Structures are given as structure tokens and as C-alpha cells.
Amino acid sequence: MKKIFQVLAGCMLVLSFGCRKLPAPSRFNQGFEYQPKTAVQHDLRREGDSLHVYLKFADAGFFSFPKNLQVAYTGFVNYEDTDIILADSVRKAGSRILKTEDGVLFDFKLPVARLKFPMVLQMKLVLRNDPQNALYHDVRLSATEGTKPYVLADAATNLPLFRNYVRANEPFLIAQFGVPQPGEFQRYETVFGAALPPMASQEKTVAPTLKKLQTISFLDYIVSLSEIGLYGIEIGGKSVGGVLVESANFPELVSAQDLIQPLIYLTTAEERNKLYAAPDPKAAVDKFWLGVNPNQNEARRLIRSYYERVTAANRFFTAHKAGWLTDRGMLYLIFGPPEEVKRYSNREEWIYLVNQNHNQARFIFLKKENTFTQNHYELVRSPYYEQVWYDMVEQWRKGTIGK
């Protein structure tokens, strides 16, 4: 758990806020949020004069003594600036904790009158008996996010799902606040390919308009969507977001055909064609990994490592397409979770140590506007990435990754 803690050098943010100048949010390393065991997720919903902030923590150990929990939040003008818009603490924070099978939920509300969009909300969680260590989580608040009128919610518990995807035929709710307004799902025809390598000179282009295939109305009742694909969400006649409908086992991939697809980052076109054409695709996938390392135990280790990364990428980076298809998902599969993640107003920066000499590889992802999601980032590609990319792919192909 210590790995997720970040200790502030110098002036500490205390609940009394006696120290006014605080480090800008961009100073913090948020890499732990992309580790499955320490992930932090959030969702937002506008509720009249308040903005409801929902949080989910994968690591339940931090909340073993909820009565000792203290939560403070600070609103910054942006990621780079130390100017503060608001600062306060959550009253009786320990009583707002809800432990579930897959994490710990926490929520609180902010008065909209004190917010200024865009801004950055940074939360600090500490335990009274261990005040020197703190867990930080930041939330980018744009006008779109600050007015979002719903959360995707579990049909059985009415709790937020903390994801922008559902599974085919999975019952869920478009949970609005107060008297619900009528809404519609707009299903679109989409074909999104996998991300290009980081040194690619030309990015794939996406058609400027998407063909609408179907319209489905909803209100405040339980809904389920049977067709896999991308759906826009309209409430009260306004576009307010979207949801991706995926297969029944998502974010995991289990079918042989699905297991072949993420190998695009490790294989040639000829190798993939042979895998798809094989009479027994599952056996062909196993043969591929045994070809990487004929030792069955090592082959199993490689398979487990690679597809665990696929699952994690789908959890963290799914946007208008599955997470493993995105630029961040591509880097995550090949390089693994980044050692450092720094956030700025228009981008994320990932830093990796790529060899024993502690040489760094730095990747920059620019935040892009997207009708369906606020989780869309594109990699700034460069020919300088070619060597480090092929070095990592070679480690996979030789079976030496992770050793």
C-alpha cells in the first residue's frame, strides 16, 4: 500500500488549510491509479445546486479503520497553477464509506456556486494515526462534466458502475437526480481499429459523421442493450454522453477470436492471418505463445501477463472503443503500467524506466474532445519512439519480458 502513498515535501495540506500555497496538481504522480490493486475511479452527477462526486477505491486496506479517515478537497484553477478556488473538508468522512465486493465507495457533494469551470478538484485522504502519508486523487472538471445529469448505475443496487461500458443484455440504469427526464440511446455504426505504433508517421482517420442505426427510448426504469456497439445518450433532447456495449465477459477476453486481436501489437500481418485461418484458433494461440517460449510454465506466465494487461487496459481506458484499442491501452499492453503519470490541463504524461541504466521513455497523450466520453486521449507520435518500441516488442517475442 505504501507505493500508492505520496508524501508532500514542505507545506502539507491540513484540514484547517492554514497553509495557503499548495503544490500544483501536476506535481503529483498518479501512476498508482493505473495499477489494478490500487486503482481509483470516479463519476459525477449534477444534482440541482450541487455536484455529486462518487469515488471507488480498489484497495480496501486503506479503509480498515474508517473512523480515522479524513478527507479534504481543494479546487485549483488548472493543473499547472497554485491559485485556489475553494478548499474544504468532508464532514464525518468515515460514515460515508461503503465497502463492496470489488472495492470501497465514497461520495460527497460540492456546491456548484463555489465552482468555476474548467477547474481541477484534488482530494486528499489521510488517516489520523498516519498523517504523514496521503492518498491523492484529481478530477478534471469541465463544463460538460460539471453538468452531467446521470450516472450509469447497477440495476440491483442503484450504485454507480464507475465505467462507461456495459455488457450486452446487462441490466442497468441511467440514474438521474430528482424527476427523471425522458431520454434516448442512439446506436451508431462504428468500426474502430487498433492504435498505430508510437512512431507511426500518419494516424488513422475516423469518418467525421457516424451512421445512426437505431433509437431506443428510456426513462427511469431498468434497461439493457442487446446489440454490441457505441451508443450516444440524449436526455431532454440534449446529447449528454455515451456508453459502449461490449461482450458478456468484458473487460476480459475469453473467446479464441478475441484473444487473437490484441496480438496485433506483437505480430506481423502474416502471423495474424494464420491465427485467424487456423481450424482450431485456441490451439493456434497456444502454439504462438509456446513458439515464444517452449517452456510451458513460462508460456503460461507470458499469456497471463499479456491478457491481464488487456483486461486492465479495458478497465482504465475504454472510451468510444475498447481500452486495448486506444493509444494509452496500446502502450499499457507493451510497456505495462507507467512508473509515473503526470496530468496537465490538456494532457497526460507517462514515464517509463526502460533499462537498467534508468533511461526514461516519456509519452505524451493529448486530451481530445469526444461526444461520447471524457476518457479519450491521443498519443503524440514521434519517430524517436521506434527503437524503444521495437526493444519492448522484442522482449515479448523472446519471452524475456518481466524478467
Automatic annotation (TrEMBL):
Record-linked InterPro entries: GWxTD_dom (IPR030959)
Matching NCBIfam families: GWxTD_dom (TIGR04514)
A Pfam family that the UniProt record links to this protein: GWxTD_dom
Species, as recorded: Adhaeribacter terrigena
Domain GWxTD, residue spans: 240-398
UniProt name for this protein: GWxTD domain-containing protein
